[in-house]
Design goal:
The complex is a heterodimer of chains A (221) and B (206).
Chain A lengths: L2 H15 L1 H22 L3 H33 L2 H6 L5 H30 L4 H29 L5 H12 L1 H15 L5 H29 L2
Chain B lengths: L1 E10 L2 E11 L3 E7 L5 H9 L6 E6 L2 E2 L4 H7 E4 L11 H11 L6 H10 L15 H9 L11 E5 L7 H16 L3 E5 L9 E7 L2
Parallel strand pairs in B: 3-8, 3-9, 6-7, 7-8
Antiparallel strand pairs in B: 1-2, 1-4, 4-5
The chains are: A mainly alpha (221), B alpha/beta (206).
Chain lengths: 221, 206
């Protein structure tokens, strides 16, 4: 079995044994999204207009909340040091960890998004566009977030710094992700937005494990 | 087999050591001594490649480590201050994963045998968070008892601390066996100990 599958398996097992961690960021997502209709008011037109933006921002924040878990626990108990000295390249280890992170934090958001969309009065096709964009976008959030998490691992004010580092980098995903729903609402094609999200996913999958691995080596010096 | 050339380490603006050179032939134990804060752990981390020296070079099998990092790490087993074990996992799960990281294939039976050697037979399937500090240390050290012929270099930071005499004797006998197989062992220890193989010492002055 390759080190990649080992890491994914291991992190999923840890997430399962500490499921309250993963569930708390999921509940955070649900609560943030549910607060908006209460604050904005029940006017269906307004709610449909803001739905995709609200879901995207909530997904960004929920991902940010779970990013702290990505390397911090392994750093505290010394496992991260062992990973740095692994017989396999570190970026492979990082990719495994990021994939497991997406499975436990990003994918649940995607699966919940149709339900959240219904809360905002979205209908069939609108929900499909929103969830599809999230499906392409949330892995990018995990991948880019891994760089920030690697840079801030072991720092005292790490979580605030992580937010300051990572949120600006999330802007392209947010813009094109939310714009897919906007384009669909105004009767335009959504494929350009999906293509850009796909391109962002490929670029971040190619670059961020390598950058996160380099950042980890610097952080642990 | 392992050598250091003019190593220099500066941490937090303080010069921990400079011009540190030594060489350790195969089958020899290098004991690193020095007062608290002298830089023993920094030296071990430099030898592992976790920390870059400010100047100088670590040589393994006559070529610099920074040019052969992954093949070096395939032979290196490092046990630091932090145990590197997960509270959520059982002792056996921890051991199997640690071995996988090092590129060693270990079966559940092999892991059980290694834990048995360190007197943890009854705790194999217990989550590590239930274990005492000394027992956790033993779980970390059980990695040394795995069948691992590729390991050419052990770097051990205070392996004997928090262990009772039986466990310490067990670790020392594992070290002896590894040295007899031609490996190099570098370790720090505040406790006195004896090994059958050749022993060299370096002292890092404060």
């Amino acid at each position: 079995m390759s080190i990649w599958t080992r890491i994914v398996q291991r992190d999923l097992r840890i997430a399962w044994r500490r499921r309250s961690d993963a569930l708390s960021s999921l509940f955070f997502f649900v609560i943030v999204v549910s607060l908006f209709p209460l604050g904005v008011g029940p006017e269906p037109g307004t709610l449909r207009l803001i739905a995709s933006g609200v879901l995207w921002v909530a997904a960004l924040l929920a991902t940010l909340l779970s990013l702290g878990r990505l390397f911090a626990a392994d750093h505290l108990d010394g496992t991260l040091e062992q990973m740095l000295l692994a017989a396999e390249p570190l970026w492979l280890v990082v990719t495994g960890k990021v994939f497991a992170h997406w499975l436990t934090s990003g994918l649940p958001l995607v699966l919940l998004s149709p339900l959240m969309g219904l809360q905002f009065g979205l209908e069939g096709e609108e929900i499909a566009v929103l969830s599809g964009a999230l499906l392409l976008g949330t892995p990018v959030l995990s991948l880019i977030g891994a760089i920030g998490a690697a840079l801030t691992v072991g720092l005292r004010a790490g979580s605030v710094l992580l937010a300051l580092l990572v949120l600006p980098l999330y802007i392209p995903v947010l813009v094109f992700g939310a714009a897919a729903s906007g384009a669909h609402a105004s009767g335009l094609a959504v494929t350009p937005h999906f293509s850009i999200l796909g391109a962002l996913l490929l670029a971040s999958a190619a670059l961020s494990p390598w950058a996160a691995a380099a950042a980890l080596r610097i952080s642990l010096e | 087999m392992l050598a250091a050339e003019n190593l220099e380490c500066v941490r937090g603006g303080r010069d921990l050591f400079s011009n540190l050179s030594f060489s350790v032939p195969s089958g020899t134990l290098l004991r690193v001594s020095g007062a608290n804060g002298a830089g023993k752990t920094s030296l071990l981390r430099i030898l592992c490649g976790l920390l870059l020296p400010n100047s100088g070079e670590v040589i393994w099998r006559s070529s610099p480590v920074r040019k052969q990092r992954e093949s070096y790490w395939r032979e290196l087993r490092y046990i630091g201050h932090l145990a590197g074990i997960k509270d959520e996992f059982t002792a056996a799960e921890n051991l199997v994963f640690a071995a996988a990281l090092a590129g060693v294939a270990v079966t559940a039976a092999g892991a059980r045998e290694a834990l048995d050697q360190l007197g943890l037979a009854r705790f194999v399937h217990m989550p590590v968070r239930m274990l005492s500090q000394g027992q956790r240390r033993r779980v970390a050290l059980a990695r040394l008892a795995l069948p691992d012929p590729a390991a050419g270099l052990w770097v051990l930071d205070e392996p004997l601390s928090a262990l009772d005499t039986d466990a310490a004797d067990c670790v020392l006998s594992l070290i002896d066996a590894r040295l007899a197989a031609g490996a190099v062992v570098v370790m720090t220890s505040h406790q006195p100990f004896t090994v059958a193989a050749e022993l060299r010492s370096i002292n890092i002055p404060v």
